[in-house]
Amino acid sequence: MYVWTLRTWTLLKMADLINCALTEFVITVGVVIVNGNNSTEEEIKGRISLGNKAFYANQDLFKSKLLTKNSKPRMYKTLVRPVVTYACETWVLKGNIQTKLRVFERKVIRRIYGPTKEKYGSWRIKWNEELNRLTGNKNIINYIKAQRLAWFGHIHRMPDNSMVKKYMNGHLH
Fold first, then answer.
1. Among candidates 71, 80, 74, 116, which has minimal Cα distance to 101?
2. Which is nearest to 68 in space by CA: 119, 124, 104, 113?
3. Domain locations in the chain?
4. What are phi and psi of 135, to 5 degrees?
5. What is the mean pLDDT of the chain?
């Protein structure tokens, strides 16, 4: 699927693009959106938004007293995380994007595990260190890096005449 979304008043053909001096456009190739600055930042923000929708659509399950606290993180990893990390193998993880992804995941995990009761009866939200301990330091960034490594291995095992392997090795001809 190749879709060209241009911020102009008319739809332009590919031949017209060569003659135009457009400064801002978005290209959707397959499922990854790349803007004119060769950045996937908007795509990742959209994925986080879709992850929020997936989480709140299943909020009744996450709030349910019938499910254990051990099954709810598995539900998050099955229902919500794949929505956020779809096509994450091709993302460039800048610092601000990593922060947004971590904030999203911590928000969901805090909702799953709930607050902590203090000695004197007061309640507080769980600290980041407590969340890391509960999840065993298996955060969304580590998951994305593992997915990238698995994707690299998949490409590496492809035959040498594969188009994807040629592009990865820089042989564009």
1. 80
2. 113
3. 1-30, 39-169
4. -90, -5
5. 80
Please tell me the pTM assigned to this model: 0.73
DSSP strand pairing (32-35 vs 25-29):
antiparallel
Place of tokens 């795509």: 43
Predicted confidence at residue 16, as pLDDT, reads 41
CA 160/CA 32 separation, integer angstroms = 25
**φ and ψ at residue 85, rounded to 5 degrees:** -100, 15
Look at strands 2-6 and 25-29 and give their pairing: antiparallel
For the stretch 65-88, pLDDT in tens is: 999 988 999 999 999 999 999 999
Integer Cα distance of 66 and 24 in angstroms:
50
By C-alpha distance, which of 69, 70, 76, 86 is closest to 54?
A: 76
Which residues make Cβ contacts (< 8 Å) with residue 81, sequence separation at least 6?
A: 51, 105, 140, 143
